[in-house]
Amino acid sequence: MATRRGFLASLLACASLPALGWADAGSPAVLACAGDPDGGYSLHGLREDSTAAFRLPLPARGHAGCGHPTEALAVAFARRPGTYALVLDCARGTVRHRLSPPEGRHFNGHGTFLAEGAVLATSEQAVDTSEGFMGLWDATDGFRRLGEVPTGGLGPHDLKRLDSGLVIVANGGIATDPTDRTRLNLATMRPNLAVLDPLNGGAPEVTELTPDLHQLSIRHLSLRDDGTLAFAMQWEGEPETLVPLLGLRDPHGTVTLAEAPEPEARLMQGYAGSIAWSGDGTEVAITSPKGGRVQRFDAGGSFLGHVARPEVCGIAPLGRGFLLSDGLGGLLSVEDGIPAPLGRAELAWDNHLVRL
Amino acid sequence: MRLALVLALLATPALAGVEEVTQQHLRPGVAAFAEATEALAQAARADCTAEALRPAYDAAWTAWSPIADLRLGPTEPAALTIAYWPDQRGAGAKALRGLLASDAPALRDPAAFAEVSAAARGFPALDRLLGDPELSGYGTNSPTCTLVQTVTADMAAQGAALAEGWQAEAEALASAGEAGNARYLTEDEAFRALYTQILSALEFTADTRLGRPLGEPGRPRPTRAEFWRTGRPLPNALASAEAAVAVAQLLAEIPLPLTEAALDQVRHAAAAIDDPTFQNIEDPTARLKLEILQQRVRALLDIVEAEVGAPRGLQPGFNSRDGD
After folding, report:
1. Which positions carry the signal peptide feature in this UniProt record (chain A) (predicted)?
2. What does the pLDDT look like over A259-281, one tens digit per residue?
3. How far does B179 lie from chain A, in Å, by closest CA?
4. Residue A329: closest C-alpha in chain B
5. How far is residue A136's CA from residue B6's CA, in Å, rounded to a whole number?
6. Which residue, of A252, A279, A285, B214, is most buried by count of CB atoms within 10 Å of its CB?
């Protein structure tokens, strides 16, 4: 097996080529990182019917990152510590750029393209304080660093571009030790949702949950076409306490929290790892690999039902419903709460499915 | 390609072992629990007093223990509403006292009672009502008597629902890997699901059933033992290990001499314990005996991993043990 350095050197050799679109990469609908049976890692493009559009080797375990809106470019973040990200040309199967965060920063595993793909935004934190930043990179000029905007919280995780051009960030609120990821501030953590203006800067507009939920880390986001944001959370407090793991923020900024009834609620083990709106936008679902469970809710936050599946985590819209991926290599569709197997590969899907 | 090789070897035996566990352990297990809880509810209707009910209560435990830690499909939520533990904040006791002080429909209506906190239902409720001297002296025409009858009727309803709900899971296990099975996409997934439950059961017994009362070094916590008021700590810990090995033997379909020897060590360590409620562990010798039992359960876990899991290349989860 090639060394990481050799791998990068060979692939970086072929940069500066004309842009190719997603059709040239086999027309994938979603991106997913995976662990391979031989211990390696890879990035996959999956078509609407869950067949493979492409597969690219990665030098280390990747976190799904994001895809360019038009060009066949995917950004995969090194999982942790987030010391680099790769911009992969999914049509040619090459690494186009290797991004390193500025000194004293780590990538936090998520990013999104802004300005019709001209700018890449990455969630980052200061290594020493965990203070959050959104890094901005010029996708039209070799992914040159353009600047950054404070996210208004600690440990930012997922981020989404709103139609207004503003960006909403999930500040998880957790300060971590730079070397071993130990959580340092569970007693005092204060997660929030922050709306940032990437162009004009200024103070982020921040929404916090009520003080009794200050240990509920907001981590992953899914945006519906009408601007309703769904957010998935992870409970860092006393394990027996039942808390909502799903939040909905309407386009006016009003937040509704949603939870399943007991005992169903307990089976998620206080952890939602991914979130997605259904294809028709009538349902939203959260996944828990710890509980081996997917919970579905309607758009008002009422619990609809569950799907049990070991190691399930990745979720994206598919058809009217959802596509699920899991650590056993399974891909399933869910429509009207009914799961159906789509395939199983000898690999372990990573936490997220990223819809292109 | 160790994984590929391992999966090829698994192809047939996996499902045969899964079938054995389903037919010989789980199916009779849920049926026996349904019967035992129905008998418990009948006994409570005939004579609700704590003393009269204890044999039927213990029989319900004997039926529950073999399936208690096999949390698949309907037994996942049932494990919470039948045997919620540990209840670190005493939510169950609080809810029960609230019910007894009220005239709420949940006091006498099992359907309304099914809406109360999981910590106040099933065995945890009976451990308090039958085993707490402040509560257990109730007479036959008391609110506590009514509540005991309601709790046991709810358990019987849960037992019946579990036996019925289990059919779908049994069918999913039996048809693992067949087209359209969204629960188990391959045969080895069904094997893996059962194997994971064996490990979780032993881990829970070592770390929680035995670890909680052991407390911190120099500070035992006897009242943190599992349902200690009704004498369950030692029987439950031992039954958990026995059930784990019984399932492992059916699942593996090969002789497991090391696992059986490790289980014998667990039995010996359990037999040396004088007080099955663990309430004597302030005494250093008693504590040591409990620590030895915990070590033996941990050793059993390691051996099951080596003898059942390792030959099949089974490894811990990719996502479930790696938060993000």
Report:
1. 1-21
2. 999 999 999 999 999 999 999 99
3. 8
4. B185
5. 46
6. A285
Report all structural domains of chain B as residue ranges with CATH numbers, in order of start.
12-174 (1.20.1420.20), 187-312 (1.20.120)
Please tell me the CATH code under which domain A215-356 is placed. Answer: 2.130.10.10
Cis preceding linkage at B255, omega within 30: no
* Residues in chain A, overall count: 356
**Pairing relation of β-strands A312-318 and A338-344?**
unpaired
Which residue type occupies B33? F
Do the Cβ atoms of A267 and B87 come within 8 Å? no
> CB neighbours of B127 closer than 8 A, spacing ≥ 6?
B227, B229, B230, B232
Summarised one tens digit per residue, pLDDT across range A282-310 is 999 999 999 999 999 999 999 999 999 99
Q: Do B180 and A271 touch (CB under 8 A)?
A: no
- pLDDT tens digits along B112-151: 999 999 999 999 999 999 999 999 999 999 999 999 999 9
Closest CA to A343 of B175, B193, B181, B15: B181
Residue pair B50/B13 in contact (Cβ under 8 Å)? The answer is no
- Asked if A335 contacts A42 with a C-beta cutoff of 8 angstroms, the reply is no
Say what the pLDDT of residue B2 is.
Answer: 34
pTM of the model: 0.91
Q: Is the pLDDT of residue A3 over 90?
A: no
Check CB contact of B117 with chain A, cutoff 8 Å. yes
| Facing B3 at nearest CB: one of A37, A240, A313 | A37
Contact in structure between A312 and A342 (CB atoms under 8 Å): no
